[in-house]
């Protein structure tokens, strides 16, 4: 490849026509021992966008992996510059980490745009770190490669696998039944986190890293290598090597992330049983790269894809097993042979999807099924519509027997559920009232949670997967249909209807709902409706009093002024479209 291309960084570091500017730019980088030779002899300057820190434990081992990235960059003739990305930790950030995705995105855009970087390694892992960093690389469109951090090792309870997040939901049921006490609950949950790494279930982290690989943004096989494995540090080195050549080739995010690549990622998401957080994240990335995708594409291209990966929460195994069975390469191999993904998309290693994955097969068919023997057919997200929202999604791969057992309507129409709405105004209200006997929740109820979308919460809370009251769990009813304008954890096996857009706080139909209203969920036609006359809904809208939106920080205020609905990615809109939304539904 040609190493003659003029690099972006020379505008800062070596412009003889502006000696004073160049001197100012360069002098301070020498103060810790870099030399002029390194910065002025045309070596690519490579950023390492560091998402790990003590506050971001899922990505913390990137602080060590970065050394291997540096080694690779140096060996290929580049100069590494490591810098911090705004910390995002899914479990630790209040009110919700989703609020911070766009903030981390903005911060990284400023760094990539404003500093002398020719290319960047994106260290990813915990849920929002992956979309935030890819969005930024897409906006600036300089050569960029994803280095996933990898899942934690399998968690174990003697011989039983204990998966991140998923264990919380099942242990909470045991706790409600009195099978375990507080100490037992803590022991169960902490057993799921045995090593460095991100969540070991097929939650949002493993999903988004798998989709980053499926998009072509990481080296093949990168997504699922467990964090502590030697192969993780080795791929950190290869990633560092590769980004330098990507700079010389000028291989940019816009060359890799085409519409076909996004459709590949949507199909991959169904096949792995991926998180319901993937649609807004993928949408936001596509928006940044200028590719048109929409929630319709999930229905059209994703819903009919079979589930091939047997990982929690849809299945049994965890990230370590997924890696050992072949990871993303094996799944892509299966989808390629079935003609379901486009093989000619370019990837960051310079080869196509077909070249990278065409020969890959499962190494353990209990964990990654061959295409002909899937875990389940039609495993993608259904896009639901009706008079409560324009769109919401439902993960069909987790609809289990438990759920079907408690059908709420007549046996003649087993896919049409009718129930009595129990409405909560956000997670605090839910936690406060769910076990109150006067609510009178039974197996004919649908739990509704609102005011937890991007505007309402703000950021959109992962709360739609609500457990039934303890008194129902004691009777063996572990699951009720849930509907909400928030999200749910990717680690949850709840078949909720979530990401409802527009959310209640933006004037969506959920705002009009009252407890005891009759709600119908039609799984055949993907419809959700409250069974009330339009006139009644209009009457309620005229009298609607929305709860006030209180901003606790300056960013919350800016976020609320700019955020779009989840079906549009929870992205930033600073154009007329957002103003129209405000006009229609009132200033938040
Ligand atoms: Fe960070 Fe799950 S909490 S990956
Ligand atoms: Mg999450």
From TrEMBL:
Protein name: Dihydroxy-acid dehydratase
PROSITE patterns: ILVD_EDD_1
Organism: Microbulbifer rhizosphaerae
Similarity-based family: Belongs to the IlvD/Edd family.
Dihydroxy-acid/6-phosphogluconate dehydratase N-terminal domain: residues covered: 43-356
Protein EC: 4.2.1.9
Gene3D superfamilies assigned: IlvD/EDD C-terminal domain-like
Domain of life: Bacteria
InterPro entries associated with the record: Dihydro-acid_dehy_C, DiOHA_6PGluconate_deHydtase_CS, ILV_EDD_C, ILV_EDD_N, IlvD/EDD_N, Sugar_Degrad_Dehydratases
Leading EC class: lyase
Entries under NCBIfam families matching the protein: PRK06131.1 (NF004784), PRK13017.1 (NF009560)
Record key words, sorted: Iron, Iron-sulfur, Lyase, Metal-binding
Keyword match Cell wall biogenesis/degradation: no
Domain Dihydroxy-acid/6-phosphogluconate dehydratase C-terminal: 366-569
Keyword Metal-binding: yes
MF terms in GO: dihydroxy-acid dehydratase activity; iron-sulfur cluster binding; metal ion binding
